[in-house]
Amino acid sequence: MVLTAPYVPESIVVHLGYPDAPAANVTVSFLDYIKNVASSEVYPTWPEAALRANIYAQISFTLNRIFTEWYRSQGYDFDITNTTQYDHAFIYERNIFDTISLLVDEIFTTYIREIGQVAPFPAPYCDGRQTFCDGMLQWGTVDLANQGYNSIEILRYYYGDNIELVPNAPVMSYTPSYPGTPLDYGDFNNNVLIIQYQLNRIGQNYPAIPKIAPAVGDFNLVTLAAVRRFQSIFNLAVTGIVDEATWYEISYIYSVVKRLAELETEGVEYSSVSKILPTELSLGATGSGVELLQYFLSVIGLFNDTFPQVAQTGVYDAQTQQAVEALQQNNGLPVTGAVDKTTWDLIYDQFRGITFILPALLTTLPIVPFDGVLLSRGSTGERVELLQQYLNEIAETYPEVPTVAVEGVFGPQTQQAVQAFQRQFGLAADGVVGAQTWQMILDVYESTLRRVNPDVPQYPGYPLLQGMSDSQ
Description:
Elements: E1 8-9, E2 11-15, E3 25-29, H1 30-41, H2 48-68, E4 80-81, H3 98-107, E5 111-114, E6 125-126, E7 136-137, H4 138-146, H5 151-159, E8 163-166, E9 171-172, H6 190-203, H7 221-233, H8 244-264, H9 288-302, H10 318-330, H11 341-357, H12 382-397, H13 412-424, H14 435-449
Parallel strand pairs: 1-9, 2-4, 6-7
Antiparallel strand pairs: 2-3, 5-8
Helix pairs in contact: 1-3, 2-3, 2-4, 2-5, 6-8, 8-9, 9-11, 12-14
């Protein structure tokens, strides 16, 4: 958990199947678990530097699962699964290679972390022959070791220079992070500080959660308000008390928003999202349209571990094609590996479905006041681009407003969208964005963040019955 030091658990509970599969749980020592995983995933004849790099990655990934309570915070009674779509390969009661056993004995308390961070680095990897990912390629570690790279150089080759090895993590029995008793108004302790820290990080993606400042471990009125708002957003009982359910939901959402933040640092951000297919995309295509497609696929993959991983490279490569084919196959579309309008709409709808269910994905646009410059047909620049982003967000709630291409040019498409917005909200539909129209756009945009239409009652005024068909 945040603000506590990572440790190596004496034992780990492994679920022998997919997370929701009715499979057995087995408890093994952490040491034996890592030996099993390493023996299942790499070859003992590999160069020692390659073996060490792989074992460090396996240790760090596993400790990240423990540290963040990734499964237990979702209500599961285990720490990790044995399926490679989600975690590591683990073959219960398999034979262990002597070479690997000796290495694990030496380094099992050493993990990777990003410099300045507390949590063990999640260290993604894949084999690098049959599967590829945005992480370490296991067979690639062999090539690098044969070129003279040592283990930390191999890790930095794949994960960047901002990582380090942390030795001698303490070994102790697993203790759930939940303190055992609820946290309530008036409490003052380190557990309150943990909750305050996590709520403040979650609040960067959920602006409705009040900022707790200063966060010093005092369960004050601001903390009470933040907890209540969190509970309301995530459909928990709104008590203002951090019971076990609230504690683990905060822990889970905190982990989710950090994963999404890491994803967005790769390139495309949510503010660049557009529903419009830039052009039909297929193997070999390049450019911002491909990068946006890869961003969509990456977000979908965060919540579907069986989905092929995709890196945001801007190049429509074999990885991207495989992901598109998997999505087409899973949804009954012709498996072409190319993205036409039908496939794009499907991908976009799945992406938006995730953002609707998990607003953690929403990186809000800046709220910029009117600067005194009218925007109209022929205008260009950052203000026009921001206007187009506002209009696209508003279009998700108000379908009367058409979506537009985010290109920073005020063309006929943008003019039509502005006029539709003005008609929708009782303004003169002249297609010119002055102070009044700009302020109305800001007001309506901010209301869409809360998924609330300020002018139209949410209840249609009559019950919805089977067989009915209308806009409601």
